[in-house]
Amino acid sequence: MQVISLGLLLSGALITYKIFMLISNSESPIVVVLSGSMEPGVHRGDLLLLTNYIERDRLVSGDIVVYKLPERNIPIVHRIIKIHEDKNLDVDILSKGDNNIPDDRELYGRGRRWLQRPNIAGRAFAFLPYAGMLTIIMNDYPQLKYVLLGCLSGLALIGGE
């Protein structure tokens, strides 16, 4: 019975995440800030809630966005500092970390001077301070991840109602 309960718990978490994906229209509705590049406004370990209904609500300078680049595995959380929009509504975006001196052009890769709309994974609309610190700790100490998962699974299997 406990195995079934553990399976239901994990399934419920997955279903909840998928519902967040549908509501936010984003493949990553929740992200953890992994670096200090956005301090003092957003700190390492803060959990950002994203929306990707940007077609309806246009991006503006000052928005905090999460963007993905093909040559990078980890998305980047930075602020939009400049936007160029043409008659066809094509958008060129320049971003920068609040705590960084230069803009992000070096991060974009060789020959790329601007981000395009498909690079944007979402815009932050809310954040939970330091709610993602457990994720950072588990990334810094991968063995802890397995110990924690083992303990939680063990508790779920041997625990009673």
Q: What does this protein look like?
A:
- By secondary structure, the protein is of the alpha+beta class.
- It folds into two domains: 25-130, Umud Fragment, subunit A, CATH 2.10.109.10; 133-161, no CATH class.
- 32% of the residues lie in helices and 23% in strands.
- It has helices at residues 2-24, 105-108, 133-140, 142-158, and strands spanning 30-32, 47-51, 64-67, 76-85, 91-96, 120-128.
- Strands 1-2-6-3-4-5 form a six-stranded antiparallel β-sheet.
- α1 (2-24) crosses α4 and α3 (133-140) packs across α4 (142-158).
- Keywords: Membrane, Transmembrane, Transmembrane helix.
- It is found in: Endoplasmic reticulum membrane.
- Its main location: endoplasmic reticulum.
- Residues 18-81 form the Peptidase S26 domain.
Number of E-type strands: 6
Low-confidence stretches: none
Count of distinct structural domains: 2
Q: How would you spell out the order of helices and strands?
A: HEEEEEHEHH
CATH fold title of the largest domain: Umud Fragment, subunit A
Largest sheet: 6 strands, antiparallel
* Radius of gyration using CA atoms only: 19 Å
**Overall SS class:** alpha+beta
Q: Report the total helices.
A: 4
Helix percent band: 25-40%
Mean pLDDT: 87
CATH homolog superfamily of the largest domain? Umud Fragment, subunit A
CATH architectural label of the largest domain:
Ribbon
Beta-strand level of the residues, as a percent range? Answer: 15-25%
* Form type: elongated
The CATH class of the largest domain, by name, is Mainly Beta
CA distance, first residue to last residue: 10 Å
